[in-house]
């Protein structure tokens, strides 16, 4: 099969061959923010996972979602956590994104935080915190999709702080052009 830009699916024996690397590269064309989801594990340990798979689901009730890789060492603890926090990272927190993206014992070294709902750590300097109670989780192939009900949220007083963005496999900041409203209608004006 082919289209104008080319395709990475091909027919063979009635089944489509799938190029996972090309699929990942295509997904990288969608710029996202970067978040660290934190929780308090049942054994008293702090849990933290870097992710770019975060978005809003519903305003009423206030729901968000994120997904965690099934291979994540902290997945079992996340599945039974009484609550968690989504910490939206600022441009200056690239080091935290890297630190929490690795499976290592010292993720929390030199990390300033305060306890939030269900003792989930709220990272100092984050652009926003969403404190959640578990609402649902779903099978998402090689990931588990978590839906959380937001019970508290906060944003910093300094609204000039820029977000940490992830695009084409690299970190980016917001720079260059001035603000422009989207061409599609939004239900809430920010």
From TrEMBL:
<dbReference type="InterPro" id="IPR002563">
    <property type="entry name" value="Flavin_Rdtase-like_dom"/>
</dbReference>
<keyword id="KW-0560">Oxidoreductase</keyword>
<dbReference type="GO" id="GO:0042602">
    <property type="term" value="F:riboflavin reductase (NADPH) activity"/>
</dbReference>
<comment type="similarity">
    <text>Belongs to the non-flavoprotein flavin reductase family.</text>
</comment>
<feature type="domain" description="Flavin reductase like">
    <location>
        <begin position="27"/>
        <end position="173"/>
    </location>
</feature>
<dbReference type="InterPro" id="IPR012349">
    <property type="entry name" value="Split_barrel_FMN-bd"/>
</dbReference>
<dbReference type="Pfam" id="PF01613">
    <property type="entry name" value="Flavin_Reduct"/>
</dbReference>
<dbReference type="GO" id="GO:0010181">
    <property type="term" value="F:FMN binding"/>
</dbReference>
<protein>
    <submittedName>
        <fullName>Flavin reductase family protein</fullName>
    </submittedName>
</protein>
<dbReference type="InterPro" id="IPR050268">
    <property type="entry name" value="NADH-dep_flavin_reductase"/>
</dbReference>
